[in-house]
């Protein structure tokens, strides 16, 4: 594939590739600001569904494919799931507006639920752990010669 434009890039130059610019380039795509799934259906590497997310002409760059994909995709997904789990665990959840039960009716066109789940987060308990330790430096600075413990509030954990 030739672009018809030749540029000389000197050694040591930094080249930035804009994913947004590649996906919305009007020279490459018809109606670049419209979402069209058929762009992915006419790929070069087809599976049984005729769908491909690999694009050898570099008209768009997917986030998590190839050997240059984002190395933290798995840890980002794990951290998102853990954050959601901590929110669910850390609060007492009730249904809003006096609802009695959740409506888990799926939509007809996809696997998502038809109505979003709504929950009201109620009071949660904050447990503070205090680390006690002896500190000669603090006692020396404060002029305290006794062996009493100095209590520092070092970390607050929410459970």
UniProtKB/TrEMBL annotation:
Heme binds at residue 70. Its cofactor is heme. The keyword Transmembrane helix does not apply. GO terms for molecular function: heme binding; iron ion binding; monooxygenase activity; oxidoreductase activity, acting on paired donors, with incorporation or reduction of molecular oxygen. Keywords: Heme, Iron, Metal-binding. InterPro entries: CYP450_AA/FA_Hydroxylases, Cyt_P450, Cyt_P450_E_grp-I, Cyt_P450_sf. SUPFAM superfamilies: Cytochrome P450 (SSF48264). Gene3D superfamilies: Cytochrome P450. Coiled coil: none annotated. The keyword DNA-binding does not apply. PANTHER family: CYTOCHROME P450 703A2-RELATED-RELATED, TYROSINE N-MONOOXYGENASE. This is Cytochrome P450 superfamily protein. It comes from Arabidopsis thaliana (Mouse-ear cress).
């Amino acid at each position: 594939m030739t672009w018809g434009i030749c540029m000389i890039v000197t050694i040591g130059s930094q080249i930035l590739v804009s994913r947004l610019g590649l996906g919305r380039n009007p020279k490459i795509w018809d109606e670049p600001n419209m979402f069209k799934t058929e762009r992915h259906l006419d790929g070069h590497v087809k599976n049984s569904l005729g769908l491909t997310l690999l694009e050898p002409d570099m008209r768009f760059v997917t986030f998590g494919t190839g050997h240059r994909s984002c190395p933290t995709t798995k840890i980002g997904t794990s951290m998102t799931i853990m954050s959601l789990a901590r929110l669910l665990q850390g609060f007492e959840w009730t249904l809003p507006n006096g609802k009695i039960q959740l409506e888990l009716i799926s939509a007809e066109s996809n696997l998502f639920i038809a109505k979003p789940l709504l929950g009201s987060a109620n009071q949660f308990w904050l447990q503070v752990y205090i680390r006690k330790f002896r500190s000669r430096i603090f006692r020396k600075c404060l002029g305290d010669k006794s062996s009493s413990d100095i209590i520092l509030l070092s970390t607050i954990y929410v459970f």
